[in-house]
Queue: 4 jobs
Job 1
Amino acid sequence: SAAMIIKRGEECLMIKDDYKDAMTFPTGVIDPDESAKSAAIRETKEEVGIICPSDNVTFYSVAYISEQYGFKDRFHFYFFIENNQIDDNQITLSKGIEYYKWVPMNEIAINAGDRRAYIKLQAMLELGSREPYFEV
């Protein structure tokens, strides 16, 4: 799967899907014959209506996430874009997305239900660092 970390100032955009217990970054499954980056860009547009120009999107990290919360083990690709110009009027939620919230970086993990990957991502974002790969 692939996700987009959208940073605006000192906050990141998180969403709450109706079938999940906690918030996530805009995320979804990578389709056959689709790159991880393309999937993250597509899922972001589908879920919140934000268009992320490919040239402005950078690779952030990939995580191996062992089986948890009913999800099988998987690799999850994270991409990053910083855009301080995003206006909440630009956000349009797709069916199945209950709500969105701009979350301070030090509250990402708690909003994500303290999932291991989000604990690690929060630490990386707070430090302004990137690790190309981690396991949780």
Job 2
Amino acid sequence: MNPNQLFAIPAATGFKLVDSKLNVVIELKATSSDAVFIANKGEIIGAFIEKGNGWYFEFYQNKKLISERVDVKF
């Protein structure tokens, strides 16, 4: 098992992605597409997108687009 894997728990507006200790790491809000969510990771707001064979958290930092692959089990 990957120690960095997150687990999706359904929430009123989407999902909460939690770690193995049930700490909320990312909050997802549903959009009109099943492959795109509005995401909050602490103070960072971005998009959570299914691309190819995985999920990515994308956001801007210092005017540069950052794309982080996220290991999540829905």
Job 3
Amino acid sequence: MGVLAKSNREIILFYDSKSELGKKCRAYAESAGVSVRTVDLLQTKVTGTEWTEIAEMLNLSVQVLVDQEHPIFKDLYGEKKISLDEYGAISILQKHPETLVFPIAIRGNIAIQAKGSTDLRKLIDPDSAGIPQP
């Protein structure tokens, strides 16, 4: 059992409210006519356990959720890619959530990285595979 309160009736959107993609994803989700719970990472701290659960739902490691090309990351660690372990990646996401590589949307037990705002269609459209409709 996970720590995230998930529902098939609601989309949870984890995003950076200052990023253009984050703003577009929020607008897209809110205009789609489904219930949306937004988690602005600049305002709400996500726990390490929650980051781990999110990564598991995406079938990814927490390390790949960190954008090592982000200016803040480069200011902290330089131009070279570094090898992060899970705890290091969680620490970076907690202290510098704007380094999240893409917004993440969850509906029920399905999670996606929104590389574009229209990726949210996978969770909104009635024909979305694997998403039971209310």
Job 4
Amino acid sequence: MKKLFQAVDRINDRFGNIIAYFNIAVVGIVCYEIVARYVFNAPTVWASEGMVMLSGFMYVLAGGYAQLHKRHVRIDILYSRLRPKAQAVCDALAFVFFCFYMYALIWHGALFAEESVTYLESSGTPWDPIVFPAKIAVPLGGLLVFLQMTVDVIRKLYSAFAGQEV
């Protein structure tokens, strides 16, 4: 089980590190658009949409990385005062509700992605790029978060009740 957990950690860590480079592309697109628009008075039709699409990729695909490194928002007013066993139980209860959300995101996101791929959906804007890669990223990102959250909750429960790290 430890190797499986480490594999999930590694996948999310690598995904996050790769996705971070999309920031460079976004900054490059924004800088290019600024120069094209204000220096050469020749705005592009693709820059705004390209930046939004790449930012969306980063947002959904980096969720597992954020979960791995404990970067998601948590309200610690009460939680931080609880003992480790109580924290683990709270995490397990929250995980039940989290599973409903992840089911909707992964399953229905996959249905939307499948339809988008089937019809080779494009944005319908003047640039008109294909959008199915962005729609595929939604269930994939959801799956990465779900796997990481599952691993984290099992680790926390095991550590709290067995007194050992996994």
